[in-house]
């Protein structure tokens, strides 16, 4: 036993030694950056103990005295960046999102996490689904679902009670994204109810974060066993079954020549969904199998519903706190929104400029993406000529970059004027990282903004909102891969 143990230690030491010799140039270049305290063999692995405090708190603790910080997991270097110009440089020069294959069990391989060459195929296939023509078609669904949300809020409004608006808004966004992505309504699927699927999405985010910060769960086999032992494999099944069943029905419908699009039309959904477009295009792109189409759809559903719902909820809470800004938004809505209570026209949507400033400011200060991970595929030269060597893992702390005083006056204060035309003109082009940067900027950015504006406009036209929360402090926030509220979103609705 002692011989075996001693041999293992020697092998590990030799592997680390030869790794360092092989990557000596990289090690020399990395000496340019401040480093977290190191221990022999394990490097800075003890840093993982900090992650129990949550991503947000940990990133702030690590980077409070630094703009760049290097730490080591054994011989593997990881560089954290929080300066917007460093992040822009890295995202612009390195196109592969590096996920350590941690996402595949949950949401497959698609536009969110595919390697660059496969991502280009995803982008080509999905781009028509997010052009102006399709966004106009989605607007009918946005309006319909927002109107349903307004009706659902009548009960708490009549009771005069404060409610956590999260479930209402998340259900609305799930129904919206399902209608536009799959062409289905959650009530007409085999899923028990919308809440079941919403809960599965939330659990997926939690478990993804757990895996990211737990290296022992990185190996596929160990993580699969973990999922089975903890009963979390059922969450994966719930997430995958819904799009799989919808896509299978669409393929069967195409085979059945007696079934036409008109005969299966559902007024609650988009007449031409994203999956319809992918199926049509898959005839020319053979790599887009049913599984690939499902994965693309699932990634849009999971990320689109959760992040947009968080943006709407944080915006509502901010507007409930800032009554003066809420009044200004309401006055704009009443000028733009027709008396028949519809917003399903481009003129109305584009006319809500101040509301859009509120939506973007929420995305800045309550980030939908706390961080982005890359791995440099070549030497990356920063603006001060320091070099990040090839094969270095990068954590871009997007959330912290949004508080750069060089970009935003009083950056810790929620203020829609940060996104006025005048303020935007003073910032370097591309420095707004709310939807990422570079070639892999979020394809659904405009979709998310329009969807958020539609929901908020319908709510604020019909209700005055207030809250018992005086301000949203850092202590009120937590993060997995998204920023969340520990105190929920307590809102009181009063009919106008």
Helix tally equals 20
The helix/strand class is alpha+beta
Radius of gyration: 24 Å
Estimate percent helicity. 40-55%
Low-confidence stretches: 258-267
Spatial strand order of the main sheet: 1-2-7-4
Strand content: 5-15%
Count of individual beta strands: 11
Amino- and carboxy-terminal Cα gap = 77 Å
Taking the sheet with the most strands, its summary is: 4 strands, mixed
Shape: globular
Report mean pLDDT, rounded to a whole number: 83
Q: How would you describe this structure to a colleague?
A:
The chain is α+β, with helices and mostly antiparallel strands and 496 residues long. Helix content is 52%, strand content 9%. The protein contains 20 helices and 11 strands. The protein has helices spanning 2-22, 24-30, 55-63, 84-93, 104-107, 116-126, 132-152, 154-159, 166-181, 194-212, 220-230, 233-255, 274-282, 290-321, 323-336, 346-351, 353-365, 398-401, 421-426, 445-462; strands at residues 68-73, 76-81, 162-164, 372-375, 380-381, 387-388, 393-396, 463-466, 477-479, 483-485, 490-495. The chain has a 4-stranded mixed beta sheet, covered by helices on one side. A 3-stranded antiparallel beta sheet has the order 3-11-8. Strands 5-6 form a two-stranded antiparallel ribbon. A hairpin with a 2-residue loop joins β1 and β2 (76-81). α9 (166-181) packs across α10 (194-212) and α14 packs across α17. It is globular. The model is unreliable at 258-267 (pLDDT under 50).
């Amino acid at each position: 036993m002692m011989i075996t143990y001693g041999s293992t230690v020697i092998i590990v030491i030799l592997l680390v030694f030869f790794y360092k010799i092989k990557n000596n140039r990289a090690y020399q270049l990395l000496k340019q950056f401040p480093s977290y305290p190191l221990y022999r063999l394990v490097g800075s692995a003890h840093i993982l103990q900090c992650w129990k405090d949550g991503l947000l708190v940990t990133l702030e603790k690590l980077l409070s005295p630094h703009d760049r910080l290097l730490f080591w997991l054994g011989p593997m270097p990881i560089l954290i960046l929080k300066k917007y110009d460093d992040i822009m440089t890295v995202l612009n020069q390195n196109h592969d999102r590096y996920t350590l294959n941690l996402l595949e069990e949950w949401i497959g391989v698609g536009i969110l996490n595919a390697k660059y060459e496969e991502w280009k195929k995803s982008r080509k296939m999905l781009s028509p689904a997010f052009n102006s023509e399709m966004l106009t078609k989605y607007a009918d669904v946005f309006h319909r679902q927002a109107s349903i949300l307004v009706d659902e809020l009548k009960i708490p409004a009549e009771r005069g009670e404060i409610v956590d608006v999260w479930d209402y808004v998340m259900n609305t966004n799930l129904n919206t994204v399902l209608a536009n992505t799959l062409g289905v309504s959650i009530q007409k699927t085999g899923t028990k109810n919308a809440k079941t699927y919403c809960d599965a999405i939330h659990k997926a985010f939690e478990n993804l974060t757990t895996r990211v910060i737990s290296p022992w769960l990185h190996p596929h086999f160990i993580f699969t066993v973990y999922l089975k032992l903890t009963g979390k494999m059922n969450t994966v099944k719930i997430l995958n079954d819904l799009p799989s069943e919808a896509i299978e029905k669409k393929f069967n419908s195409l085979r059945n020549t007696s079934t036409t699009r008109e005969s299966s039309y559902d007024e609650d959904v988009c007449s031409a969904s994203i999956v319809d477009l992918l199926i049509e295009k898959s005839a020319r792109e053979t790599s887009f199998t049913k599984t690939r189409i499902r994965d693309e759809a699932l990634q849009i559903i999971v990320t689109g519903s959760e992040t947009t719902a968080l943006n709407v909820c944080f915006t509502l809470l901010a507007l409930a706190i800032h009554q003066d800004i809420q009044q200004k938004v309401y006055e704009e809505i009443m000028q733009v929104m027709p008396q028949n209570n519809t917003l399903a026209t481009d003129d109305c949507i584009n006319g809500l400029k101040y509301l859009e400033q509120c939506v973007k400011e929420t995305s800045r200060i309550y980030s939908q993406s706390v961080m982005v991970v890359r791995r440099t595929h070549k030497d990356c030269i920063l603006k001060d000529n320091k070099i990040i060597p090839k094969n270095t893992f990068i954590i871009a702390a997007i959330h912290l970059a949004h508080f750069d005083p060089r970009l935003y006056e009083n950056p810790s204060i929620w203020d829609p004027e940060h996104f006025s035309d005048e303020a935007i003109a003073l910032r370097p082009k591309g420095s707004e990282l709310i939807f990422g940067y570079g070639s892999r900027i979020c394809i659904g950015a405009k979709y998310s903004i329009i969807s958020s504006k539609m929901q908020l406009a319908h709510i604020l036209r019909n209700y005055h909102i207030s809250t018992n929360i005086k301000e949203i402090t850092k202590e009120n926030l937590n993060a997995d891969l998204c920023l969340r509220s520990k105190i929920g979103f307590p809102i009181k609705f009063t009919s106008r």
